[in-house]
Batch of 3 targets.
Target 1
Amino acid sequence: MEFAALSGAAQLGSFNPLRTNLQSPKQHNPLPFSYASFPSSFRRVCSCKAILSTHKPTSTHKMFGPHSDDLELSALTALSPLDGRYWGKVKELSPYLSESALIYFRVLVEIKWLLQLSMIPEIVEVPSFSESAKTFLQSLIDDFSLDDALEVKNIERVTNHDVKAVEYFLKQKCQSNAEVAKVLEFFHFGCTSEDINNLAHALMLKETMNSVMFPVMDKIIKALCDMAKDNAHVPMLSRTHGQPASPTTLGKELAIFAVRLSRERKDLSHIEILGKFAGAVGNYNAHVVAYPNVNWPQVAEQFVHSLGLSFNPYVAQIETHDYMAKLFHSLIQFNNILIDFDRDVWGYISLSYFKQITKAGEIGSSTMPHKVNPIDFENSEGNLGVANGVLSHLSMKLPISRWQRDLTDSTVIRNMPVGIGHSLLAYKSTLQGIGKLQVNEARLSEDLNQCWEVLAEPIQTVMRRYGVPEPYEKLKELTRGKAVNKESIRVFIEGLDIPEEAKTNLLKLTPDTYVGAAVELARTVESVVNIVNGSNI
């Protein structure tokens, strides 16, 4: 299940910044210095001690490579690890969340609005466009490229206004078409910048979730369902408060996370992505003065719906961002569940319940050669924490704006890619970690066989059924703080005054077989997940 599709396959065009071979932040050349070029105070460091040098760079001697004014963006100069170290793992977000993507969606909204105006009979100044003119305008969307985005940025250097730069860019582009050139001043007609921006951001979010995030979430849920079914029968010692507890199966514990994540994924897909298009303070003030006979609220609603978005009629200058807060909160909850999973698997690896498949050439520790660390789950947990920090601020800040609008949301909303990017990075780390796991059934069985005291629960429960006095207290006396084994359990059961059939059934119990309905719960998890989502994962 995805956010509702746009009304028409060509609505967004076929823009893809990666088509222009957008690589990374480009490949960095070898560092422009050698070890010998460092000041002697640095070269003397040879015993793992950090020394702060008092050497001051001069115009003829730079401490580290080129001056910052000379640096170009690369994987080594990028400030954000998403744009540097991790670019290869998150670059699929670029067509939807990058600066060029924002410009593209602004262009799309401006053009679609001009086309909408041409369909309003009362606006005689913008007559219906010919098919040729429509094709021309659509081509500006479909063929939008990084060169176009750079042209907009160059205009912005003069205007110092990003949305106005898009308007001027379109006016320049459309001068070559005689039909469109006659109505250039109707680009951005009646609009405040936020009319354009809020729809652009809404489309960015919608396409990001549908094209990138939901598919990766589904892969995680599917991987957990598969693992749950494959290990439905594998008994495992539970631990509550870190102490041995009633046995479960490995598959059932994995199934829990599959179902939890699927619920959050469903909630995310049901969030309405809203848009407004009501002018400077939400009242269509200028629209009504210019064309008083047009039903502008109805026109705005039709326009927003034509983009595949839901309409928010009650706004000031900006869309209220309440839907964004809801979406980011849901992402946080999905991430929290995944943190819980990462930590549980980390613990199971520590207990040797899982082995990790090693990869030739990889190093776990710079000093301990034997180490195979659970780095994928640690990386996931760390990035989920960063993501949640950003998403939490977005969800708390964006719905708050002074009076009819302040500018604080503008700079904050640009960090959507940070929260979403670190989430995606974490999801991929989790998937990578899952792919390395091997179940160590021998170790699982060993732990169970050392914990016969977990059978105290079923024994005292059966004793209750048959009226044996103080069953809990008797088992507490037998097991609490004492060594319990198969033999001591057998002797206790045989001494019970209960029916022989019940006694026989208790004597058949072992920690390995005392798993209740766990096997069936794990085996049927995929059908439950499909019911939750209303579709097949």
Note: Strands lie at 235-240, 243-249, 274-275, 310-311, 354-356, 437-439.
Target 2
Amino acid sequence: MKRRAGASEKKEAKKQKLLEELGESWLPYLTPRDAEFHQLSWFLLPTKLECKSPEVNIGTDPICQCSIYNVASLPNWKTRYSKLFLRKADKIPQELHHIVQEAFLTLQKHDCFFQDLVRIKGKDFLTPVSRILIGNPGCTYKYLNTRLFTVPWPMEDYEIKYCHPELFAACKALIKLNDYLNVEAVQALQEQNLSETRETENTAVTDREQDISTFIKGSLLEVQSSLYTPRNDCTSLKYRTSYNLTLLNYMDPLQMPYLKQEPYFGMGNMAVSWHHDENLIERSTVAVYNYSCEGSACDKDNEQYVEGRDPADWHVGLKVAWDIKTPGLAIPLHPGDCYFMLDDLNMTHQHCVLAGFEPRFSSTHRVAECSTGTLEYIFGQCEVALQNLQVDSDSAALSLKSLEVQVVKEVEGIHNEVEFEWLRQFWFQGKRYRKCTDWWFEPMAKLEEFWKKMEFMTSLVLCEVGKGERTMEQRNEIISCFLPLLTERQELRKEWTARCQCQLAMSLPEEQKPKCHPLWKDDDPSMPLPYDLEEVIANLQTLLE
């Protein structure tokens, strides 16, 4: 917790320093309207967009409202975005466009997109973007202190019952998109490594077309046969591109009462602020499919030259992290366009999403770091903890096999992990997952059974240290390792209870309102310990003294 808080403070300090350096001026940024935009060393950039103002010199760009340096004089600035790979919509199979865009609309029709109640610097916020996580069964993804649980997409050996056949079709379409983007990402990384020797380029393109054709016919990639992330081999292309989930986003900017303004470049309304994507496998590629619903909000036939980015269009903004010398980018995203952040681009750069006028969906495919974020993992943790519990075969009485300090510490740590990283995270999101499938409810009920056994194990530790059968040194050693974990449990229960009762939580629709669970009254005969541990902690502190 302290390390996470420290990182957040450092990030805020960097942000404030950057804003102080800027003063009232804007940093320069490039769009397809700028000649310099087309001088960048794009990796596999498709046909160049028309440069509408080739005479523009960013050194005197009126967008910046100040006299700034000429970016062309900066060393290597043209290669700073070489790991951004764009794939225009007309280069992607039309059949794939059709099923993916239909999937977006289906999920919206069944009310499957939700704003997340996230926690930033100790405060709760509703995200302006509505989201749903779809991916490998049993996988989770954590961002902004919020653990999302995948709506599982169809996979062999898993029986997944969807609430409607249309939802099955939608999830099936998204795994097809996932497979397509995997092929594209692998090919992009391979071609970048071979950028100095291009003799095999034609063969590579032909192979890629054959691969895509195979996917559209319905076969699944071999990499999907492995449910979770492969072993830690960062040199493996499969390891860095085996997307195990996608975070889908939806926002209608005209329905938003307020959107933040981009603070560094003056790029306008932001749907998503500057950030690095969290909790991903190191150097893994992020792939994004964009679909904005075109309508009548802007008349492209009467389009006139506008300074900076066109506010009617959605854009992805990109900048080198904490760098004020390299110009930023605002890249327009049209329906069906894809972009890939290859290799370490997500680590060295930050990106944001700039709102247009039309409603927009996106599917952001990631290799999530799931070492502690799968059902397989947390059930394994429970198994480790419960090994210290024994049941008398005759009386069914419970007892602990060991009171060794390290064993007690490990078990109580797992106890906290199950309660606060899984049970409370899941129920804090209300009943939202029932909109798509009830897949998660059986394993969460099983997890709660294990957690309840751990409550009994905690009560057994308390009984043992209160018996007076051990020396003072032995007793103090157990209490000293045990007390901080119990104190953390008490503090986190207070925090989660308050979050469930906050004004934002109460304002949500009934099926989305957070549920404070597990929750019980102190006199509940089925529970060995009270919900409020204040008195228990005070008694332990007395024994320690």
Note: The radius of gyration is 27 Å.
Target 3
Amino acid sequence: MENPVTSKCCNHQPWFVLLVFFVFCIELFSFDYSGFTAKKSALVTVLDDNHGNVINTQSSLPHDFTEITNASVYPLPKTDEKGDLKVGTEIDSCVGRYIFVHDLPSRFNEDLVNNCRLLTRGTDKNMCPYLDNLGFGPEIENPEDVLINNSWFLTNQFLLEVIFHNKMKRYECLTNDSSIASAIYVPFYAGLDMSLYLWGFNTTVRDSASLGLVKWLSEKPEWKRMWGRDHFLVAGRIAWDFRRQSDNETDWGSKLRFLPESKNMSMLSIESSSWNNDYAIPYPTCFHPSKDSEIFRWQDRMRRQNRQYLFSFAGAPRPEYQNSIRGKIIDQCLASKSQCKLLDCNYGTTNCDNPVNVMKVFQSSIFCLQPPGDSYTRRSIFDSILAGCIPVFFHPGTAYAQYIWHLPKNYTAYSVYLPVKDLSEWKINLNETLLRMPEDRILRLREEVIKLIPRVVYASSRSRSETLEDAFDLAVKGILDRIESVRVMIREGKDPSIGFADGDDYKYTFSTYGNGN
């Protein structure tokens, strides 16, 4: 007698087989898909609607000092209207380059510009005209055939923070989503703020804005991601002006860079200090080209210049500084007569703020002397590069230890180094030393100097270069690399505070740079 159950199954065997096969396929598909997604679980991505970018949601490292949200960023594959994958997906060129700009209260930037007449209290200088044209200053109306029309401005050397901020507003990889940003820019005009209170104000007043800034920043969610180590600011004064080491009323500057929160940030300025979280970027010159063709035209013009002077110096003596070598340089320049051109920048003499006067001298010179002044660095370094004039340095802190993102590491390729540690060690005869330089080496040095021109100018904020990187581009690239190196440390389980803001006592020592050439 047949079993009724098996009999029924056998009678419908084809349908039963199909049912089992269908269930098996469903299970297999589910297994394969879960395996695929499991492999991707470390790289789950979310598309940001505003920017078309990808936010990495990989779980953060188990460290209490930070929370990484964009250690690795991968673009999502693009799909068509049906949701099918498109072939030939374009990669987001801004991955690793996104910058989030803090919208600071106006007291930290905009109000300082609006109160420009107060920026130079105690002097007769009005800073307001220099803030025209997005910080470039008034356009030079009479270039006297020394400059190129429409590209040169009366730019104040202390307005880097304003110029940088305006250029950042046109940066191609800005984002309103801080979670995908590789860096956080803090547009605090620290130099302008300090200019308000340079003389006659106590330390409490001088430090007020700095204290207010770090309090504001530390309360923002962006701060807690890396405790400020992905934040950077830009200052238009030398970094030493923000490193007052005591609260003695007679001490200079503010203590911004010694505040605990500020130690976690990086600062870009016209001259760095000896601390590792300060970086130097070029002084603003007066040349702000709007097109690459203007730079190429200028470079060609500098190659064709007739240089009638062996060397030149634009500046003034510094008798108040015991070890200043400027007096010696001026004496030898005057003694060299037709071999040297001196542009006397003493108060009340030639207007050395006018680039027509400066460039006229530098374009006519083979070498331009660059001794330290009130500090290690000076804008004249970059003026001489613009003029195709080979810079002569006497201290490593004037350029070599400073502008590591903008000038070649091989300093002998573009400059002459005559180290002088102390005025008592001065044994140089400038005329004889420079006359001994072989002609073929002079030509090589000058060509390298002329090639550096695009790297040391801040191009027009209203346009974007087609092929060249300017000083702003290289500064952004440098700070992004700096912050990424901190992320690498965190991913490796290291403490990012180690070495981040340490002092480097050897940064400006002579031994690192040899005996000159």
Note: Residues 99-284+471-492 form one domain.
